[in-house]
Amino acid sequence: MYISIDMGGTYTRIASSKDLSSIYQHIKFNTKKDLIDQKNNINYQIKKLSEGERVLGICLGVPGTLDIKNKKFLKFPNYKVLESRPFSDLLSGDFSSIPLIVVNDSHMAGYMETVKGVGEKYDKVLYLSVGTGIGGLYMKDKSIDGIFQNFEPGHECVFSDGLDLEEHCAGHGFKRMYGSNPNDTAPSSVWETYAKDLYKGVSFLSTKYPSDIIVLGGGFSVNNFQYFHKYLPKGLNIKLAEYGDDSGILGGFEILSKTL
What's the rounded Cα separation, in Å, for the pair 56 and 53? Predict the structure, then answer.
């Protein structure tokens, strides 16, 4: 049995697979704010999903930057309790002997969309995960090495008001920025302004990271693309992630298939 964990700032998804290509069982829960609670729940769910079978590999996606060499979490704006802690603080000793791959959660989802999703036919893919925050992945040759590079696109584009793309367009600041909740009750004028802001950030990033396609994933994009996509200016090839909320989980299995 193989395990893929997609831990975001709001939700955590864990799935098992027997063949590294399809989901066998799947669970989703609110990410616990207390690190010990989060660790205990992750470990409990792994044992439950594995159904007593031997776990052959785990891919863990987390919302922050990583020190792969020293096996440490670095910067986690939306889950600060993980900062500067070792990888082992999220997995118990029961799994210490199991092969573990830790990557940024957006990289996990972006890899799936690049190699098997909507970006599969393109050489240069910019993936942006718009959720609680904004993460992403840039790949030029579909090499798996790209997933181990720290990349924080949400902080690279700064607007004239001094706020960055994440502060403008991620879910956690939407109401503060636009004065409305992000759903079908928001006026069309709100979504039009949002789309222009998002496009400005995407345009900046696609110039810095030349891309054949820009893929929008993450919970915010998946849930609200229908409201803002028609207001996106023409010019860039912007598509919604093919696998939606499952991009991360499936990406974890895809990464394990290439690394074990």
Answer: 9
Kindly state whether residues 182 and 86 are assigned to the same domain.
no
Burial class, 238, CB count within 10 angstroms (exposed 0-12 / middle 13-18 / buried 19+): buried
Containing structural domain, residue 127: 109-244
Question: In this structure, what CATH number is given to the domain that contains residue 123?
Answer: 3.30.420.40
Distance CA 121, CA 166 (A): 28
Residue 243: phi and psi, rounded to 5, are -100, 5
CA–CA gap between residue 191 and residue 178 (Å, rounded): 9
Query: What percentage of the chain's residues is helix, strand, coil (to nearest 5)?
Result: 40, 20, 35
Buried b (16+ CB within 10 A) or exposed e, 78-113: bbeebeeeebebbbeeebeeeebbbbbbbbbbbbbb
How many domains are there within the chain? 2
Residue 6 near residue 49 (C-beta atoms within 8 A): no
| CB distance 91 to 97 below 8 Å | no
pLDDT digits (tens, 9 = 90+) for 170-192: 998 899 999 999 988 899 999 99
Give whole-number Cα distances, 150 to 41, 65, 181, in Å.
27, 6, 31
Same-domain check for residues 128 and 25: no
pLDDT in tens, 119-140: 999 999 999 999 888 999 999 9
Tokens 């790209």 locate to: 146
Percent of the chain with pLDDT over 90: 83
Beta bridge partners of 104: 62
Q: Is 169 in the same domain as 53?
A: no
Question: Which residues face 139 on adjacent strands?
Answer: 125
